[in-house]
Write a structure and sequence with these properties.
Mean pLDDT: 92
Order of helices and strands: HEEEEHEEHEHHHEHEHHHHEHHHEHHEEH
Strand content: 15-25%
Oligomer: single chain
Low-confidence stretches: 11-26
Structural class: alpha/beta
Radius of gyration: 22 Å
Shape: globular
Distance between the termini: 32 Å
Number of strands: 13
């Protein structure tokens, strides 16, 4: 539950304000996309198209199936309001001020292109929320559009609607089950490839980026065969998926379940709902399904089609990944919680949870006092979930890929070491004063946001974040391990907390070797 809270916190603390201003009837732009015509709203030189369908509603017989082709429409689709958020906890949907729906496969586009003849770089953002929350309508892409990017943000299914595996579902598809949310993301990327030129975007220059579960999604997409050729650069903010597959319920420190394990969880879920079979499960209302009890947090499943192999690092070593430039990183305090432990209790926990590298971990994380031990539990959460996967990803990309890797460390909080999970999102979107909690914005923070947005847009344009007026961001390699540190001002330096990352690298290396025996 703590992991779920942490990952969902990116939804709360990273909220970017949505644009709610109106426009005169003349300020519209109509384009033809797969399915029919859509009419967006133009304001201050930026056209926004909200709530465009990119797949058929995944309801009824299409529940727990891969996304199907969009249903065509006859009249012009008024793309002036967001589509509904995907089904999820009622508490989370209070943040969106919109009622969730199983009919959720809509996307939003922002562009400042003057006509369809332009070829601007495209960025596709995937929201976070622990794969159990989040929605496209919590973000405003206006600032990205003003920087010359065509921005797309799709919805995708979350929770049990997006990640339920079951033997009947696997038999039905013939390809496994439980990765519908990731397949929605791939369907949105296909839509971009087929339609984004109509908005002045370049279908041959697409960057996929995301935060938290969105960043993990980006990592999964770089390893997924069905996503090959649909994007050309990748950015992950506090994400990464580099640990081995989880093959037993009692395995700790690994998250993505094997198909066999997830199918058993799915069987228990449907049984708890009183559904005797898949047909009965599909006959239930969306609310009844949402209220069902899950034994573990629904999560993308190693279905053998969308997520392949037993260990992502093996895919990189074999060259079986989608090779693009990558820009990845984490925040200084990506964990929002820690356990209050005495030094003795800390040592006991490390030996129990990480027996393969307990000595290295104990040497790397201070725990001489109760305060040190408590802070170290917090840092371990940061490193296991986010920092080690991001660092390991940058390393294997630099070692086995043609595309370069760039690593960052965001420490832009008022106090060093306190940049929490999702804290960078408002800087990335340039929406510093909005969100759930209104904040005072200093000139220094505005300058930081401008620098981060410029790095992101430069990377989306050329695959290199560097540009005029910006401090040099060296590419990452396994020897120098250069990292861009976003603190008071951006400055490149050695990778922070490297001794901690190497301790967990020893753990995951030995776990990988153990699995091979």
């Amino acid at each position: 539950m703590k992991t779920a809270f942490l990952l969902m916190a990116g939804v709360v603390f990273g909220l970017a304000p949505t644009a709610c201003r109106g426009a005169s009837p003349a300020d519209h732009w109509t384009v033809t996309v797969t399915g029919g015509e859509v009419r967006g709203v133009v304001e201050d030189g930026v056209a926004s198209f909200k709530g465009i369908p990119f797949a058929a509603p995944p309801v009824g017989e299409l529940r727990w199936k891969a996304p199907q082709p969009v249903v065509p429409w006859n009249s012009v689709w008024e793309a002036d309001k967001f589509g509904p958020p995907p089904m999820q906890s009622a508490l989370l949907t209070l943040l969106y001020r919109a009622r969730p729906s199983e009919d959720c496969l809509y996307l939003n586009v922002w562009t400042a292109a003057k006509d369809a003849g332009e070829r601007r770089p495209v960025m596709v953002y995937i929201y976070g929320g622990a794969f159990n929350g989040g929605a496209a309508n919590t973000y405003d892409g206006t600032n990205f559009a003003k920087k010359g990017v065509v921005l797309v943000i799709p919805n995708y299914r979350v929770g049990v609607f997006g990640f339920l595996a079951h033997p009947e579902l696997s038999a039905e598809s013939g390809k496994g089950s439980g990765c519908y949310g990731i397949q929605d993301q791939i369907a949105a990327l296909r839509w971009v490839k087929e339609n984004i030129a109509q908005f002045g975007g370049d279908p041959c220059n697409v960057t996929v980026f995301g935060q938290s579960a969105g960043g993990m999604s980006v990592s999964i997409l770089t390893q997924s065969p069905p996503a090959r050729g649909l994007f050309h650069r990748a950015i992950s903010q506090s994400g990464g998926s580099m640990a081995p597959i989880k093959t037993a319920a009692d395995q700790e420190n690994v998250i993505i379940p094997s198909l066999a394990l997830a199918e058993q969880t799915g069987k228990a879920f449907l049984a708890d709902l009183g559904a005797a079979d898949l047909k009965a499960g599909r006959a239930l209302s969306a609310n009844a399904v949402q209220k069902g009890k899950v034994k573990s947090l629904p999560w993308p499943v190693a279905d053998g089609e969308t997520i392949v192999g037993d260990n992502p690092l093996d895919l990189y070593e074999r060259g079986q990944f989608n090779d693009t430039p990558v820009l990845v990183g984490t925040n200084s305090d990506d964990a929002l919680f820690g356990s209050k432990l005495t030094p003795g209790a800390f040592e006991k926990r490390m030996r129990e949870q990480y027996p393969l590298a307990a000595e290295e971990i104990l040497a790397a994380y201070p725990h001489a006092t109760k305060a040190e031990a408590t802070r170290s539990t917090r840092d371990i959460t940061r490193d296991v979930l986010f920092a080690w996967p991001s660092w390991a990803w940058a390393r294997v990309q630099s070692q086995h890929g043609k595309g370069k890797a760039y690593l960052y460390y965001f420490d832009g909080a008022d106090k060093p070491g306190e940049a929490g999970h999702g804290a960078e999102v408002r800087y990335v979107f340039g929406n510093l004063s909005g969100g759930l909690f209104r904040r005072a914005v200093s000139p220094e923070k505005r300058a930081m946001s401008e620098a981060i947005m410029s790095y992101w847009v430069n990377f989306a344009t050329t695959g290199n974040p560097n540009g005029p007026g910006l401090p040099l961001w060296p590419a990452f390699d396994a020897e120098t391990m250069s990292t861009m540190i976003f603190s008071k001002t951006p400055q490149a330096g050695p990778t922070p907390n490297i001794e901690k990352l190497e301790a967990f690298d020893a753990y995951y290396t030995r776990l990988r070797e153990q699995r091979r025996k």
